[in-house]
User: What shape does this take?
Amino acid sequence: MRELTPDTITDAVLDQMATTPDPRMREVMASAVKHLHAFARDVNLTPAEWIKGIEFMTAVGKICTPARQECILLSDTLGLSALVNGLHDNTAVEEGTHTSLLGPFYRETTPKLAAGSQIAGTVKPGSECVLYGRVSDVKGKPLANATVSIWQTGADGLYDIQENAASVDYRGVFTTDADGIYMLRTVKPIGYSIPMDGPVGAMVRAQARHGMRPAHIHSLVGAPGYRELVTALYLRDDPHLEDDVVFGSSGDLAVDIKPNDPACPIKGLPSIRFDMRLSRESAVDKISGRVGADPSAILKPAAGAGNGHSPASAPVAS
Ligand SMILES: [Fe+2]
Assistant: This one.
């Protein structure tokens, strides 16, 4: 019988897993084992530390519900989601607006609203603003009838599903007009803390990180023949624009609130303009996917088939 040692165990595992019929699964798992073993050797992982890690992962899984996805939050706070987003951007056939995190609060059952509608159920005096922009291809050609799903937190810094899993607020699905323009009324977003009452929050605190995200509004845009865009706009004046705890704020996604933008189609309110450029769709888009998902969809048994996601044009139900 061969002797398994810290120096030979990795090859033994790889040998046994070499029978994996699916070539991509074989490749991914072999690399994962190599890096996992290398990590354990690198830090000389002790049994106590190993069990602490097992306890942590168990807690991350146990706190997940249809409205709370701690696994995505862990991925986000470790920068893995942003990394996968960036790798995904690199596969586009054209450089459009960069992606940003879908995050754990997107939901597929978002109401379809008329252009100009207010998405916030409660609007505090002075907080109302307009969000508008043009959806186009990378050369600037407007895309009519594109679907733009928008979601953000309320004035308390919480998403609707964090307060009540059944409520729908601060989110809506809009359609661009013949000039590619979408427009809606909302409230000025505020920066907020990620949920700090679970194992990921405990990890962030143990690392002396602040846990804050800069003020942002999420969007998911789809148009036939174009790559789906998952992104977010970030308010430039937010103090955490440069140290977002989930590494979502990046590059050209920063915007300003203008008090009196003459180009804004809705007058009399401060406004945010956020144009989005979509790459043409390619074969890779059939097999790639979205970083993140509606948390309730992840817990559904059927979500294991395919990537568990619906196209941007689908979330039309209240
Ligand atoms: Fe968010």
In short: Residues 103, 105, 216, 218 surround fe (ii) ion (CB under 6 Å). The domain at 71-296 is CATH 2.60.130.10 (Protocatechuate 3,4-Dioxygenase, subunit A). Helices lie at 9-17, 23-43, 47-62, 70-77, 80-89, 160-163, 199-206, 295-299.
